[in-house]
Design goal:
By secondary structure, the protein is of the alpha/beta class. The protein contains 18 helices and 15 strands. The relative contact order is 0.09. InterPro entries: ATPase_Atu1862_pred (IPR014588), HerA-like (IPR008571), HerA_central (IPR002789), P-loop_NTPase (IPR027417). It comes from Pelagibacterium luteolum.
Length: about 500
């Protein structure tokens, strides 16, 4: 059954629909600075989907407890033992009750331990109770920090492990993670990378805009729009909402948070007795005298210090073996090469923008379960240029190819793929590519433009072109010490493996 929920309106005035069933399978990441409307967005999502799916809200500030009044959510106060929270979470999955875990009033470390215990109970429920559940985590950077802070390593590992389980392995157990954060730079990358749907709000820091742009497949210039977004406006992307970045405005909500933004109000008139109000205690005020005591530590005997220094160093315990399998770099590179090969098989791939190709690449990596964090946009451009030239990752490690890649790095990004295609022909003693082949690699149908590219390479001193008496062209590479075999410049377009390219 397909359920579309109304999240608001697009810039064209049409309804912004979110496919709830697709969301349950692909997860959601919401990002925006404080005051950008993240909590309002989450509340809209929860209200619109309350009748369709069981919900659990991890609420560090107690803002979402008002959902209980209208939608029947049960508020679970987190001031309990970890074992009790785990058992409650198991019963929640069994009886399919929507809840709000209120962490208000707890210290940061206690919040992390309570959230980890509760998420662990949801995750470890019996298979018979793996019903679909929307798990919303507000201020996710508190529970999945990118680096250690003032909390203990034990608490951070527990919380980060629970969040990783939610986003990486929760789908098969019916758990759909929806995480919201103020700053992507403070959120653990392995948690953020598992989301396939994104709603990006207003942000100002360059590092956060860059990460948001990488997730949306946007270049650095396009990320400037995040500074200009108004409160409640977000850019949506993902299979549950839109295949292309779509600006939307979040609609109204039926409930409100207990805490609201501060409002300006006139100062009270205190008069001349303002000092008395401050320095004179009221009759019902509790007066406690806190004596100030300075306790000087007793001097440590010299014999104790010498005895400690003479003791051998403690034995360093070996690190425990990880419960998760190690990522095989060779296997991962082979999987990435296979994904790039799938993209290049599309005859229209050469004529698409890099941003569109990168978004297609990320989706294919998730479909094929490529392990580890996917390459960023810069790494993708480099790998795609090598793959477009017809070279796999193993072949790219040879000395000749490393020299060719270094030479290509001095060229603009849109020309590197064309240069590497000609370099490959020289390294492997293949025929010099035709103008039609080079034009296709550049994303053009113009053969004259391909000839201008070769002239540009020659002017830069990277290649030397010559033609024989039959008009066949050869490209020599002085820095590589090799040259291509003669090739017909007016021949048809071919794929990197030498086959005729489909038109």
């Amino acid at each position: 059954m397909t359920v579309d929920i109304d999240m608001g309106t697009t810039t064209k005035g049409t309804p912004a629909r979110l496919d709830l069933e697709e969301l349950l399978a692909t997860r959601l990441l919401v990002q925006g600075n404080s005051g950008s409307g993240k909590s309002h967005l989450l509340r809209r999502l929860l209200e619109q989907s309350a009748q369709w799916v069981q919900q659990c809200v991890i609420d560090p500030e107690g803002d979402f407890v008002t959902l209980a009044d209208k939608f029947g959510h049960v508020v679970v106060e987190a001031n309990r033992s970890e074992q009790e929270l785990t058992r409650i979470a198991g019963r929640i999955r069994q009886h399919r009750v929507s809840v709000v875990l209120s962490l208000e009033g707890l210290e940061a470390e206690a919040q992390m331990r309570a959230a980890a215990a509760f998420l662990g109970g949801l995750f470890d429920a019996d298979r018979d109770f793996w019903y679909p559940m929307l798990v919303v985590v507000d201020e996710a950077q508190l529970f999945a920090p990118a680096s250690g802070g003032e909390v203990s390593d034990d608490a951070r590992k527990l919380s980060l492990g629970a969040m990783t389980n939610l986003m990486c392995r929760g789908r098969k157990r019916g758990l759909a993670g929806v995480i919201a954060t103020q700053r992507l730079a403070k959120l653990a990358k392995n948690v953020a990378a598992e989301a396939s749907n994104f709603l990006m709000g207003r942000t100002f820091l360059d590092i956060d805009m860059a990460r948001a742009g990488d997730l949306l497949g946007m270049d650095r210039r396009g990320t400037e729009m995040f500074r200009d977004l108004e409160k409640g406006n977000f850019v949506a992307l993902g299979p549950a909402m839109s295949r292309r970045p779509l600006p939307i405005r979040i609609g109204d909500v039926e409930t409100s948070a207990r805490s609201t933004s501060p409002k300006l109000m006139p100062m009270p008139e205190t008069g001349a007795d303002a000092a008395d109000l401050i320095f004179t205690p009221s009759p019902d005020e509790e007066i406690r005298s806190i004596p100030r005591r300075v306790v000087q530590p007793a001097p440590r005997p010299t014999a104790d210090i010498l005895a400690q220094l003479s003791q051998p160093l403690p034995r360093v315990e070996p690190e425990p073996v990880s419960l998760f399998p190690e990522i095989d770099a060779v296997e991962r590179d082979a999987a990435i090469d296979a994904v790039l090969g799938e993209i290049l098989e599309d005859p229209d791939a050469s004529f698409r923008s890099v941003a569109v190709l990168y978004q297609d690449f990320l989706v294919r990596c998730r479909i094929r379960r490529v392990p580890g964090t996917p390459p960023d946009l810069t790494e993708f451009k480099r790998r795609f240029a090598v793959a477009r030239a017809g070279v796999d990752t193993a072949g790219a490690q040879s000395d000749g190819w490393q020299t060719a890649i270094n030479l290509a790095a001095s060229l603009p990004e849109d020309l590197q793929g064309v240069f590497l295609m000609v370099a490959r022909a020289a390294v492997e003693k293949l025929s010099c590519p035709s103008d039609a082949t080079l034009a296709r690699a550049y994303g053009s149908h113009s053969a004259s433009r391909a000839r201008r590219l070769l002239t540009y390479f020659e002017d830069r001193g990277l290649i030397v072109l010559r033609e024989d008496f039959s008009g066949r062209r050869t490209a020599a590479f002085p820095d590589l010490g090799t040259e291509t075999a003669p090739g017909d410049a007016n021949g048809p377009a071919e794929s990197p493996d030498g086959r005729m390219a489909a038109e």
